[in-house]
Write a structure and sequence with these properties.
The chain is of the alpha/beta class. Helix content is 42%, strand content 13%. The protein has 19 helices and 11 strands. The strands form 3 sheets. Strands 3-2-1-4-5-6 form a 6-stranded parallel β-sheet, sandwiched between helices. Strands 7-8-9 form a 3-stranded antiparallel β-sheet, with helices on one face. The chain has a two-stranded antiparallel sheet with strand order 10-11. The longest helix is centred in the middle third of the chain and has 24 residues.
């Protein structure tokens, strides 16, 4: 189906994840996305999958499906001229190369704006386009996880900093970039003028950490990351059920939910199991905070007696807020994930389809589906050059000159 961005033309000169992911979301929403790559292809193409299955690259496929690939040697004058013709016809240009590289390639906003004054120019960087770190390579684990405070803040006193999962900061930043691009397109519809959309892994990470940072800015300290037995509220804590599966209690208004929580325990494990928790020492949030380690130990023993689904059913009956701590296999099989459209069947280019993750936003009144698989490097070079008005003779000359592969 068409999607809300049908008719929007996007040129992407992106590498690895954040830039391609932003353009990938727009492609899923109906935009015509042309991906400019070097003749050897962009570096994420070289990543192998854990199963080492040939010709399968899930990370690249996820962020590049539905695009058209044009391979250009931007260092060659004709390669650069072709890129400029593509960008001059575009509504949006997206890059996440470091500022020094963008400047060397003559693809800054100032380079492009005179021939395309309506261009929405999105530059995604690791650390920003100004400042002492502007030209440092800014991968997800560095600029987002490490420098923005996640790793230091999430570590409990008795643990090393946690290892990040792949591309979480990249994809969060991509969503922020797409929001900025759409806002700029809306402004262009009013004014006719393009503008720069500027975001970075570091700035997005700081925003994601903004609750803690706001506390630090306003009162000079934050709530430290605590272990399970040191929590301030035992009703906001993970626990393991008798079948070995974990669940998370998320009852921020602890006094409100405590009576129903005790009733749920009585339903499953009997009054004798809940009796110790009715101790007057645990009567309110303040007292439960003082005795948190004792309560958590009690709950660990109680929850270990029955499976997670049994506890979950009792919590639901009593209005206790909880969530499953799911493995990725469980997420994929979760009927709720399917119901909200979290996964999508993407055409594989051979008459079949593959199941993939959908963008985080849907449009029920104007559904958008990915139009096809990720392209091979340079797969659409000749077709796109023909669209630009080049002849087969000129295309052949470009190949001989090394402007295109």
């Amino acid at each position: 189906m068409a999607g809300p961005l049908t008719g929007i033309r996007v040129v992407e000169a992106g590498v690895w994840v954040a830039g391609p992911a932003a353009a990938g979301i727009m492609a899923d929403w109906g935009a015509d996305v042309i991906k400019i790559e070097p003749p050897t292809g962009e570096p994420l193409r070289g990543m192998s999958n854990p199963a080492r299955i040939p010709d399968v690259n899930p990370p690249f496929e996820l962020d590049n499906r539905g695009k058209r690939s044009v391979a250009l040697n931007l260092a060659h004058p004709e390669g650069y001229r072709i890129a400029r013709r593509l960008i001059d016809r575009a509504d949006v240009f997206i890059t996440n190369m470091v500022p020094a590289v963008v400047e060397r390639l003559r693809l800054t906003y100032n380079d492009l704006k005179d021939t395309n004054p309506g261009l929405v120019y999105c530059h995604i960087t690791g650390y920003g386009v100004v400042g002492p770190d502007r030209d440092r390579p800014g991968f997800d684990a560095g600029a987002f996880w490490s420098q923005a405070g996640f790793m230091a803040t999430m570590a409990t006193p008795d643990c090393d900093p946690p290892m990040p999962r792949n591309a979480m900061g990249d994809h969060t930043t991509a969503v922020a970039a797409v929001a900025g691009i759409c806002a700029a397109l809306l402004a262009r519809a009013r004014t006719g003028r393009g503008q720069v959309v500027d975001t970075s892994l570091y700035r997005t990470g700081i925003y994601i950490m903004s609750w803690d940072l706001s506390m630090q800015l306003r009162v000079g300290r934050i709530v430290p990351q605590l272990g399970r037995s040191q929590v301030n509220n035992p009703l906001v804590n993970p626990y393991r059920a008798g079948d070995g599966r974990w669940f998370y209690l998320v009852n921020l208004q602890a006094d409100r939910y405590w009576p129903g929580f005790l009733r749920a325990i009585e339903q499953v494990a009997g009054p004798e199991a809940a009796a110790p928790l009715r101790d007057p020492r645990f009567a309110d949030l303040r007292s439960r905070r003082e005795h948190a380690a004792e309560i958590v130990a009690l709950l660990d023993r109680i929850f270990a007696r029955y499976p997670r689904d049994v506890w979950g059913a009792a919590f639901d009956r009593e209005g206790v807020i909880w969530a499953k701590v799911q493995t990725l296999e469980e997420v994929i099989a979760d009927p709720q994930a399917a119901a909200i459209g979290a996964f999508v069947d993407v055409p594989d280019g051979a008459g079949g389809s593959v199941r993939m993750v959908a963008p985080p936003v849907g449009f029920p009144l104007e559904p958008a589906l990915p139009s096809g698989p990720a392209p091979e490097a340079g797969q659409h070079t000749e077709a796109v050059l023909l669209e630009l008005g080049y002849t087969w003779e000129e295309i052949a000359a470009f190949k001989e000159q090394g402007a295109i592969p």
